[in-house]
Amino acid sequence: MKKRTVLITGANKSIGFETARVMGKLGFNVWLGCRDGGRGQDAVSRLLSEGIKVRLAIIDVTDQKSVDAAVGQIKSEDGKLDVLINNAGIPGTWPIAPESQSISDIMTVYNTNVFGVIRVTQAFLPLLKLGEEPRIIMVSSGLGSLEWVSDKAHPYSQVAALGYTSSKTALNGVTVAFANSLSEYGISVNAVDPGYTATDFNGHTGYRTVSQAARGIVWFAAEACQTITAGFFLDGERAPW
Question: Which pLDDT does position 146 carry in this prediction?
Fold first, then answer.
C-alpha cells in the first residue's frame, strides 16, 4: 500500500515541527510547509537526520501564487494528498485591550489565521479528493471557544488578544462549513485545540509541551475514525464551541 501523504503548514518549528516529526515516525510521507526557505530547509535537515522522509514545500498561506505553486509541487511528485494540517498561524499584538488593537493588526491576523486557511484548503481540495481517507485538520485554540472565553472564572477570559481569539472562533466556523460541504466526498474536517503550549507565541509560558500538543493533532490525522467530522477537540475529547 502506498504511504499516506501529509502537508503541515507553518511546520518549521514548535507544534508544527513536532507534528511533522511524529507523523514521519509513523510512516507518513511528510511535506513540511514553511514560508521561509532557509528556515524550512534547516527543519527538513533536522528531520532527515532522524531518518524521517520529509520534503520542503515553500508556502506562504497569505499568497495565492505561493499556495498554487505548492499544490503544483505536491501534485507533480505525489499526485494526491491524504492529510492537510492547517497549522500556520500568527498571534498579532497582545496583550492589548480590544478597544486599542488596530484594525490593520487584526486584519493581518485574519489574513493568516482565517483567510490563509480557507485559501490553502480550497487550493488542495482536488488533491485531497484523490487521497486515501482524506482528512483536514484545523489547528485552532481554546481561546476560540466562546464558552470558555465568556466564562469570567476561566483563565482564557482574561486574555487580551481580540485579533487572535476571534480569528480562532472564526476558524472554528470555517471548520464546520467545510465539514458540512465536504462530507459527500468522505473528507473529514475537524478543529483541534493543542492547549496552552509553551511556544514562541506566548514567550514559552504555556504549561504543555509541544509533544503533548501534537498528540491530539496526530490522533486525528492517523487514528481517529474517518466518520468524525465537524468537531472541535482537545486531547481526543470534544471541546466546547
Answer: 98
- Do β-strands 237-238 and 231-234 pair in parallel, antiparallel, or remain unpaired? antiparallel
In the predicted model, residues of the chain with pLDDT beneath 70 are 1, 196-208
Q: Residues 44, 32: contact at Cβ < 8 Å?
A: yes
Look at the pTM and tell me if it is higher than 0.90. yes
CB 174 within 8 A of CB 166: no
Is the torsion defined by CA of 70, 74, 75, 80 positive or negative?
Answer: negative
Evaluate whether 86 touches 120 at the Cβ level (below 8 Å): yes
The per-residue b/e assignment along 198-221, b for 16 or more CB within 10 angstroms, e otherwise, is: bbebeeeebebebebbbbbbbebb
Spatial contact of 139 and 217, defined as CB atoms under 8 Å apart: yes
In DSSP notation, 86-120 reads E------S-SB-TTTS-HHHHHHHHIIIIIHHHHH
Give the chain's largest Cα–Cα span: 55
> Cβ atoms within 10 A of the Cβ of 94, count?
17
d(CA 239, CA 147): 10
Annotated catalytic residue 156: no
Q: Which of 110, 164, 185, 196 is catalytic?
A: 164
